[in-house]
Design goal:
The chain is mostly helical. It has one domain. The chain has 2 helices and no strands. The two termini are 23 Å apart.
Length: 60
């Protein structure tokens, strides 16, 4: 998956949440070698934790 596809899944879930709910943690799971998609996963994590984007805490 690309970083955009990963973020897209999070945004889709956000649309289904009520105003007072938010994504507070994310778990990455998949099949195969975990480091095969490291670049896009790191890019997605940077976007998820960016203050101007999803603002998911880096401490959770």
């Amino acid at each position: 998956m690309t970083a955009g596809e990963i973020i897209g899944q999070c945004l889709t879930i956000n649309e289904d949440l009520s105003q007072d709910e938010a994504i507070t943690n994310v778990v990455f799971m998949g099949m195969g070698e975990p480091l095969d998609n490291l670049g896009p996963v790191v890019d997605a994590l940077r976007l998820m934790t960016a203050p101007e984007a999803m603002r998911i805490s880096t401490r959770r």
